């Protein structure tokens, strides 16, 4: 099914229904963030050392960020088709990992499991691209809030799965992999109808701001609840009835955003109010003239190029300015594009390295239980993503300051955070995890909004997904270093000893790694400062009136 003007759903309720469905897909699609919960089971099943295990973590990062193909196709295919591809990838990828860990197929080779995890994580990229691009186009004036909300719920995914893992699955990696294998495709099939292009909201209203605030508060409440439930499970022994009761509360909180379209159905706005809004919207481009019909625009670009080649018309010399819609090949010629790529490489690539090795970092510091660390990281990651969207909206609207100013702040905090990690002490472990989670989340949401504002929404899928490739590149380099240092320390500790324990203990396991990551954060601080200075005039132009104003793109 091809996208186009005919596929656009009119009305004020469908976008919010799509946002509510997108929340479920973002939570479900974050399965790759649970690697720490089943990584040890994979390590035992494969008989792998830390370097090979770290490369399996990189496989998750590679798959999660190989979004160029869905980024290209999101302009040409209906979001439902992208969701189906993502569901199939999760089914096959996590299914292969389950076959290995469960013992059903214990002889699966290492390379096949690496590919399976890449495929499974790539399924999440298809889901994320479908819901993020669709919802940002449905709410073009609130892209910061939308990015913060959706990436925030994605950040809570690990905590949601951890609650299910400890409360219902009885700490079983096998059952968790089976849940990922069957659960993600099931949610995709249930939500597939609701994630669709809708008539965009072209006027900022008080009710829309209240609705976004409601969703943000609901997500904060969910995050607090998940951390509290995880800690409660470790403090007291809960029976099955209480566990399922806690799970049902979590499910209701994830359903909370759907209260908005439900309210619109039960309490529709008056005709006078609708008429007033229609009069306001008539001053703006209609949906058929808006940036929804991307496939037709791509076809028009091809026609222009053919006409230029035949000499029928003379090509336009003017290139787009920052803030206008860039083609992918135009964006990669800009210094700002590569600054974003480098910042993503340092900030997110180093953060995902810590997340992939969180189980081993905890064991080295004397905290063998990974679930609390993962829940804290997940909640703080969510808080950073949601807060990054909200705070950056204030900066650009009230102060006309670039969103990247937040990245400068988080990179400075990450310098200190990695030095805390280097201490290797249990007393500072949870504080370090919390700080890193916040910084990691802020950078995720801010880079999404920044790239859409600098290079436009027309080719946002391709542009952002290419920038996101910096994540697995950084993760590969940092994880390779991490595994090498870790295994050297294991060999030193086990020298002359007959011990079947393959874990490393003490601060030396990761100290050198964290010194390197702290130095990388210094470089990230410098790069993000340069970007902020460069794009300040762009934001003064885009938000001169206190709200986003799309410049006229006469070059296209």
TrEMBL record:
Record carries keyword Transmembrane helix: yes
Listed transmembrane segments: 81-105, 111-133, 176-198, 210-232, 244-262, 337-355, 361-384, 405-423, 429-451, 463-486, 512-533
Keyword Transmembrane set for record: yes
Record-level GO cellular component terms: membrane
Ranges of compositional bias, category Low complexity: 282-293
Subcellular location: Membrane
Membrane topology term: Multi-pass membrane protein
One Pfam family cited in the UniProt record for this chain: Nodulin-like
Annotated region described as Disordered, given as residue ranges: 271-294
Keywords: Membrane, Transmembrane, Transmembrane helix
Domain Nodulin-like positions: 15-262
InterPro entries according to UniProt: MFS_trans_sf, NFD4_C, Nodulin-like
Domain (NFD4 C-terminal) ranges: 333-539
Family matches, as SUPFAM superfamilies: MFS general substrate transporter
Protein name (record): Nodulin-like domain-containing protein
Originating species: Panicum virgatum
């Amino acid at each position: 099914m091809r996208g186009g003007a005919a596929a656009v759903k009119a009305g004020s309720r469908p976008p919010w229904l799509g946002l509510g469905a997108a929340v479920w897909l973002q939570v479900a699609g974050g399965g790759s963030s649970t690697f720490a919960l089943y990584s040890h089971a994979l390590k035992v099943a494969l008989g792998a050392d830390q370097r090979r295990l770290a490369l399996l973590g990189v496989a998750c990062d590679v798959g999660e960020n190989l979004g160029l193909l869905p980024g290209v196709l999101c302009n040409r295919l209906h979001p439902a088709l992208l969701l189906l591809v993502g569901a199939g990838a999760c089914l096959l990828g996590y299914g292969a990992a389950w076959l290995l860990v469960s013992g059903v197929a214990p002889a699966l080779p290492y390379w096949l499991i690496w590919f399976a995890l890449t495929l499974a994580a790539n399924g999440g990229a298809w889901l994320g691209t479908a819901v993020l691009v669709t919802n940002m186009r449905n709410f073009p004036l609130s892209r910061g809030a939308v990015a913060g909300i959706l990436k925030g719920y994605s950040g809570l995914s690990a905590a949601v799965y951890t609650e299910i893992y400890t409360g219902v699955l009885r700490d079983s990696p096998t059952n968790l992999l089976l849940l990922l294998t069957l659960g993600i495709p099931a949610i995709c099939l249930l939500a597939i109808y609701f994630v669709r292009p809708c008539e965009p909201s072209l006027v900022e209203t008080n009710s829309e701001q209240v609705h976004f605030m409601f969703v943000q508060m609901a997500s904060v409440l969910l995050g607090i609840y998940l951390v509290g439930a995880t800690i409660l499970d470790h403090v007291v022994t809960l029976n099955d009835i209480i566990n399922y009761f806690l799970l049902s509360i979590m499910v209701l909180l994830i359903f909370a955003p759907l209260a908005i379209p439900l309210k619109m159905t039960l309490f529709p706005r008056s005709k006078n109010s609708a008429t007033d809004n229609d009069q306001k919207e008539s001053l703006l481009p209609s949906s058929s003239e808006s940036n929804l019909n991307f496939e037709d625009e791509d076809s028009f670009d091809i026609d222009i190029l053919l006409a230029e080649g035949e000499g029928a018309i003379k090509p336009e010399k003017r290139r787009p300015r920052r803030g206008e819609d860039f083609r992918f090949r135009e964006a990669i010629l800009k210094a700002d594009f590569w600054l974003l790529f480098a910042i993503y490489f340092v900030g997110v690539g180093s953060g995902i390295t810590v997340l992939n090795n969180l189980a081993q970092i905890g064991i080295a510091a004397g905290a063998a239980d990974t679930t609390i660390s993962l829940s804290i990281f997940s909640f703080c990651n969510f808080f950073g993503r949601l807060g990054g969207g909200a705070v950056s909206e204030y900066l650009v609207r009230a102060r006309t300051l670039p969103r990247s100013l937040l990245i400068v702040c988080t990179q400075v905090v990450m310098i200190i955070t990695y030095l805390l990690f280097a201490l290797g002490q249990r007393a500072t472990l949870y504080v370090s995890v919390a700080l890193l989670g916040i910084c990691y989340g802020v950078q995720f949401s801010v880079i999404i909004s920044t790239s859409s504002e600098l290079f436009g929404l027309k080719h946002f899928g391709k542009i952002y997904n290419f920038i996101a490739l910096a994540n697995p590149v950084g993760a590969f380099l940092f994880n390779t270093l991490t595994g090498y240092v870790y295994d050297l320390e294991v060999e030193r500790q086990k020298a002359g000893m007959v011990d079947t324990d393959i874990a490393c203990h003490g601060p030396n396991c990761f100290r050198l790694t964290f010194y390197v990551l702290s130095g990388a954060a210094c470089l990230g601080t410098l790069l993000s400062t340069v970007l902020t200075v460069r794009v300040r005039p762009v934001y003064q132009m885009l938000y001169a009136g206190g709200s986003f104003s799309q410049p006229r793109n006469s070059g296209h």
